[in-house]
Amino acid sequence: MRTHKIAVIPGDGIGTEVLAAGLEALEALASHTGSFKLVTEHFPWSSDYYLKHGHYIPEGGLAKLKTFDAIFFGAVGSQQVPDHVSLWGLRLPICQGFDQYANVRPARVLPGVKSPLVNGKEIDWVVIRENSEGEYAGMGGRSHRGLPIEVGTEVAVFTRTGVERIHRFAFELARKRPRKHLTLVTKSNAQRFGMVLWDEVFFEVAKDYPDVKTDRELVDAMTTRMVLKPASIDVMVATNLHADILSDLAAALSGSLGIAPTANLNPERTFPSMFEPIHGSAFDITGKGIANPTATFWTAAMMLEHLGEESAAKTLMAAIEKATASGVHTPDLGGKARTADVTQAVCDAIRATAAKPVAA
Ligand code: NAD
Ligand code: MN
């Protein structure tokens, strides 16, 4: 039997609730299919941990994480710690330290889920976010604090290497989808340097993928196209900041932020990749037992696929869809179900699957 070593980092708020649900579904899947085994180790790195120890990741923490096949992550963010401290303390050191430069965010309206768009059923997108540089490169500074001449800069850094590899990744992914259509999203009318580099490199790389149809959109226009013409979009590639925003919009248009999954991939597999729901720690519903675990289940399916467990990933995805179709919905989807009810529905659906793994 294949064994995969998973590092589990629940983090803060509903991160701990949805990850517990995710692990329950993964366990049900492993024991039901009998085709793989997960060996998990929990890491308590959270904002409470930070307040106690002064850091999120202890000395040697990344070296330890490097020995795992994948990282299963909840969320980080607390009302006791400024958001930029928690984000830069836990999530970004992992993404950047492990060169997880390709952030993949699928969006689709699952059966039984209502989109705020009348034509929401047409949504079947993958948002590809550059995850290692750009606006979140961490460059910038502040001077003259408190004075009227105070300056704060936030420098977006784009390297040819960084831009080319995310475009190649996007073309490779688009090529595997039925429609083979990739939309380049930038803001190269207003931003003349890094964004024009994005445009130029995109069309250079495009020459190697004549089978992939391409077009381009400015990021502001892209928001309207997502709402008004969802069927015109297949895969989109955008910068760290732009795709961060577009993927939250994609999540809302597909029914709820509680559904949207993401994979932070190191495509070369030099380092482990990290799988997490897109959402944050959701202070307003923490501890109420009503967080939607669907995004975490979906990201677990992406993790299984990454680990080579395609058939188990398909079984899990089918179970998720059976649960959403049956109307077991948490309040974010307009229902009254609790996290535990959705988890139960997914685990039941897994156990109702033919005992043999479904064909890949
Ligand atoms: P959020 O995603 O935590 O919440 C936004 C809204 O969506 C809230 O109303 C919340 O209740 C709802 N929501 C989110 N996930 C849900 C789920 N699974 N089920 C039902 N409803 C859900 O975003 P925010 O409020 O902007 O941020 C809260 C904290 O989380 C901040 O500290 C922020 O920095 C952090 N954050 C972390 C990550 C991450 O770890 N990757 C991502 C986004 C935000
Ligand atoms: Mn975000």
Automatic annotation (TrEMBL):
Molecular function GO labels: D-malate dehydrogenase (decarboxylating) (NAD+) activity; magnesium ion binding; NAD binding
Domain Isopropylmalate dehydrogenase-like: 5-346
Sorted UniProt keywords: Manganese, Metal-binding, NAD, Oxidoreductase
A UniProt-annotated Pfam family: Iso_dh
Class of enzymatic activity (EC top level): oxidoreductase
Reactions listed under catalytic activity: (R)-malate + NAD(+) = pyruvate + CO2 + NADH
Gene3D superfamilies membership: Isopropylmalate Dehydrogenase
Entry EC no(s): 1.1.1.83
Keyword Manganese: yes
NCBIfam families attached to this UniProt entry: TTC
Family as reported in the entry's similarity comment: Belongs to the isocitrate and isopropylmalate dehydrogenases family.
Protein name: D-malate dehydrogenase (decarboxylating)
Gene: ttuC'
